[in-house]
Amino acid sequence: MATIGDFDPLNSTVPATKIEVTVSYLDITGCIHVFLFSVVVLYVQGLGTKEWREFGRTEVIDNTLNPDFVRKFVLDFFFEEKQNLRFDVYNVDTRSSNLSKHDFLGQMFCTLGEIIGSPGGRLERTLSGIPGKKCGTIIFTAEELSNCRDIATMQFCANKLDKKDFFGKSDPFLVFYRSNEDGTFTICHKTEVIKNNLNPVWQPFTIPVRALCNGDYDRTVKVDVYDWDRDGSHDFIGEFTTSYRELSRGQSQFNVYEVLNPKKKGKKKKYINSGTVTLLSFKVESEYTFVDFIRGGTQLNFTVAIDFTASNGNPSQPTSLHYMSPYQMNAYAMALKAVGEIIQDYDSDKLFPAYGFGAKLPPDGKISHAFPLNFNTENPNCVGIEGVLEAYFQSLRTVQLYGPTNFAPVINQVARSAAEVTDGSQYFVLLMITDGVISDMAQTKEAVVNVSIHINIMLFLLSSAMEELDGDEVRVSSRGRFAERDIVQFVPFRDYIDRSGNQVLSMARLAKDVLAEIPDQLLSFMKSRGIEPRPPLIPSEALTMRIPLQDKKHRE
């Protein structure tokens, strides 16, 4: 049985977004005989072990070179993880489920993010795996399952609740539970406490319908009424039950509930109730998701800014965060690759502006706090994450690490570009990698506050001492103004150095934690601006509607 103490609103979760992947196959080469009995097998790669495990198979379709498979693959989608997929295609020769007994026709590797992020959610790739042979083309389409995506907003009041406090009335609050199939209850919402009032009116609250009833409109919803006590031993006033279907009727005679206390009812013959609770209002709205915006054409505009100050240490020394080892990536390269390889799936042109700060530049030794890593002031874009890494290493060989460590200039640089995009077509993500020794904290706070109010940009700070900018507990403020949103995600990079030397595992953990907040932050930004996702683009529309390079990427 769930208790009040079981509920933690900060850690309350609902089921992950589910993506349905449809597969079709084109043997455009005509190289396979007409008696083809084809099947596609999906494998997923473990985040830590990197082992491939079979996830599922399509049905077998016979006698066609261009099968459209009816059986779908339904996958949980986690933006913060790189979800590697492998699709193997076989020609089925026998009734055996052992794949080694069938003819291998080819395979394709991709990520779930690549399929979702492709124009119109449609990814087309050539199969490989048989040297010297054309294996045809495999096509994937991704669609988010739309079950239980509504959110409900409701408000309640109560009348003549039992008096529980000796020196006062009662301090009532409501606790909502959804019923489970095994007869237990799971807490899903708790209202605020109304002090010293037997006729309270609670504030309206919003809850996902799937959290309230798991999509079953007739599933029992139990509501307990308590009197708040400072020591946590809240007094039970009574309870009532309802359902989503009953609540959806809105304010009516059907939504006035008697609050009953079973113990009192069993002891007192004249007991009627312990008060009533009335539904004042009920409204249902569609809940947009991260995938809705991505499929509608929203691009993630990823910008990198790297700390080139002397406090990082001499790049020729192993103790430096910039150490240029011939055997493995340094800390900065590891962070860039871990985060960039995931986020690039959601940027169609794969062009990433990349900056450095805190270095002396040739030929005159001028200190810069926002120089393009490729030294092209007209076009700071690098092609793909590999291009960013190449420019980073080239900069290490060219500039002199110096100081001070000023964040504000590069934040404002990106902010100027982001401020030009107000229609939700882009969401700006700035990855700042630093050793944590910041010199312009006041100016940086001012920049963060300005950014949070006017544009859609998130800052990730991988460092050792930057909690002051992380607004999880208290919003960043400057000159009496508070940041509109918590846009700074603080991640201490050294916590992700795997002592066993497993860089792959370290990067996966790092990317997962760094990127976990982006979907919710994007949704928060869009909702605060009243921006709704555009209808999903079909592939031809997506290609013609891509934003020209000179309009999309920022310039100095």
TrEMBL record:
GO CC terms: plasma membrane
Q: Where are the transmembrane segments?
A: 23-44
SMART domains to which the protein is assigned, alphabetical: C2
Residue ranges annotated for the C2 domain, each copy included: 119-257
Mind listing the UniProt keywords for this protein, alphabetically? Calcium, Membrane, Metal-binding, Repeat, Transmembrane, Transmembrane helix
Can the keyword Lipoprotein be found in this entry's annotation?
Answer: no
GO BP terms, alphabetized = cellular response to calcium ion
What InterPro entries does this protein map onto? C2_dom, C2_domain_sf, C2B_Copine, Copine, Copine_C, vWFA_dom_sf
> What's an example of a GO molecular-function annotation for this chain?
calcium-dependent phospholipid binding
Keyword Repeat in the entry? The reply is yes
Which Pfam families does the UniProt record give?
A: C2, Copine
Q: Which family does it belong to?
A: Belongs to the copine family.
Give the PANTHER family listed for this entry.
COPINE, COPINE-9
Q: What is the name of the protein in this document?
A: Copine family member 9
Phylogenetic lineage:
Eukaryota, Metazoa, Chordata, Craniata, Vertebrata
Question: Could you tell me the gene encoding this protein?
Answer: CPNE9
